[in-house]
Amino acid sequence: MSPPALPWLIVGGGPHGVHLAARLIGHARVPAEEVLILDPEPRLLGQWRRWTGAVGMAHLRSPSVHHLGLLPFELRQRPGQIAPGLKRPFARPYQRPHRTLFDKHSDQVIERFGLTARHCRGRALAVHPGPDAVRVETTLGPVRARRVVLALGQPAPAHPGWAPRTLPVDRVAHCLAPGFDRDAWIGRGPIAVVGGGLTGAQLALALEAEGTPVMHLRRHPWRVHLFDSDPGWIGPKHMAAFSREPDLAKRRAMIQAARHRGSLPAGILRRLQARQRTGDMTLVRDEVQGLELTERGVRLYLNQGPREVSGVLLATGFEAGPPGGALVADLVRQGLPTAPCGFPRIDKALRWHRRIHVTGGLAELELGPTARNLTGARRAAERILLTAGPQASAA
Ligand SMILES: Cc1cc2nc3c(=O)[nH]c(=O)nc-3n(C[C@H](O)[C@H](O)[C@H](O)COP(=O)(O)OP(=O)(O)OC[C@H]3O[C@@H](n4cnc5c(N)ncnc54)[C@H](O)[C@@H]3O)c2cc1C
């Protein structure tokens, strides 16, 4: 006889997986030993910390109520206790928390709910739903779970056609790729940072502050927005019409129209422009037509003519399409339903299958354009918790 199935397996220990685990244990009173978080990172939130560290993010883009704890105001109310001595714990407007404050608070959430002990360092390779349990093939061996939550984060970093992944990473790298290390780029000759959104701007500012000459390159006019979608998408102002829309192709169109892709807040743009005025940074609007590796670095062919740089850092976001790669594609092959855009067709409790919930980008067609953000993690947990009472645990 096989051992009893684990009640909850959360695949992915990023902000979404960690917040859900905290809510299951802290709100739904699921015993901690009934929850397991599977993630290959050495510690929970590893990828989040790497990304935000890699681009040198000081303050988060999202407001202080978007965090991983249970109570909305717990971060805002006691910054001095969470991160003593931190200068500027919040940035205006919307009290956006400093990254150190956010991370230290996240550490407290992890500690409070004993989540490090619930973290299993491994990767899910395939998921096979069955009537009594879901079998998950992992790098540590198979796991059976009564409920599985896919909290897989983003798709792979997007590379423009002129910068294939096969190029040597010491010349052309994506700043959100595994293994990217900004330190290795400090002190080199001029570096082209490609991408007009917040990630590219933060990375350019961080490199410049560390003494590296930067050419910041974007192909579109500045898109100035405080957030990556209107805050009305968090509540009923925009979500009411979205949730009423039965046609998932139309929901996808609403998401696309709502997202301020490649945008950045006005304050960050002002900082870039100030560096340009002092001659510390070059801001270029142009399209790259091609690239050539040279003895000393990279020659970029722009419409304006060639530019020599020592290397190119891509801040060009993530690939389109659903996160989860082969794992999600395999679930689709097994018959789990998708919308015309290829994303999971899910119910209000974010169930893709009776025993499989999704969060993050995979839950976009229910949660709208903010599904991938921290607020999306909070709203996803609320929905998933609808099914997490004692009866659900026994199901
Ligand atoms: C630089 C940067 C700054 C950002 N700043 C903000 C911000 O200020 N506010 C905001 O709301 N959002 C922000 N975002 C968006 C951000 O991506 C999310 O808020 C957050 O990272 C999403 O959490 P997540 O858990 O979905 O994804 P991730 O943080 O990507 O975590 C997903 C986890 O799943 C694991 N995983 C993936 N596949 C498997 C598998 N097969 N098996 C096991 N584990 C797996 C990964 O190892 C990873 O740890 C930012 C994004 C970036 C890139």
Describe it for me?
This protein folds into two domains: 6-155 and 321-394, FAD/NAD(P)-binding domain, CATH 3.50.50.60; 172-225 and 260-314, 3-Layer(bba) Sandwich (FAD/NAD(P)-binding domain). By secondary structure, the protein is α/β, with parallel strands linked by helices. 30% of the residues lie in helices and 20% in strands. Strand 7 and strand 8 form a beta hairpin. Bound molecules: flavin-adenine dinucleotide. Flavin-adenine dinucleotide is lined by residues 11-17, 38-41, 46-48, 51-52, 55, 57, 60-62, 66, 123-124, 151-154, 176, 199, 327, 360, 372-374.
* CATH architectural category of the largest domain: 3-Layer(bba) Sandwich
Can you identify the CATH class of the largest domain?
A: Alpha Beta
What are the segments in which pLDDT stays under 50 over at least 5 consecutive residues? none
Report the total helices: 13
CATH homologous superfamily classification of the largest domain: FAD/NAD(P)-binding domain
Tell me the distance between the termini.
Answer: 19 Å
Tell me how many strands there are: 18
Please, how many domains? Answer: 2
CATH-defined fold name of the largest domain: FAD/NAD(P)-binding domain
Shape: globular
Radius of gyration: 22 Å
Mean pLDDT: 95
- Hetero compounds: flavin-adenine dinucleotide
Helix content: 25-40%
